[in-house]
Design goal:
55 residues; alpha+beta; two-stranded parallel ribbon
Length: 55
């Protein structure tokens, strides 16, 4: 279930699993947007978070 009226965005900044399909289903089912990134540094995670909320 994917909702288009997202309440906000959740960023997974680093993960070592193949995909985030289960997490995406839970997060989007609750009305949020999920962005998954494999950030290599704290600065990269901060930048990704900033650009994901710059609407």
């Amino acid at each position: 279930m994917t909702r288009t009226d997202a309440k906000g965005t959740i960023l997974i900044a680093d993960f070592d699993i193949g995909d985030v399909d289960i997490e995406r289903a839970i997060v989007e089912g609750a009305g949020f947007e999920l962005l998954a990134a494999r950030c290599k540094s704290e600065d990269e995670a901060i930048e990704r978070a900033r650009t994901s909320t710059a609407s």
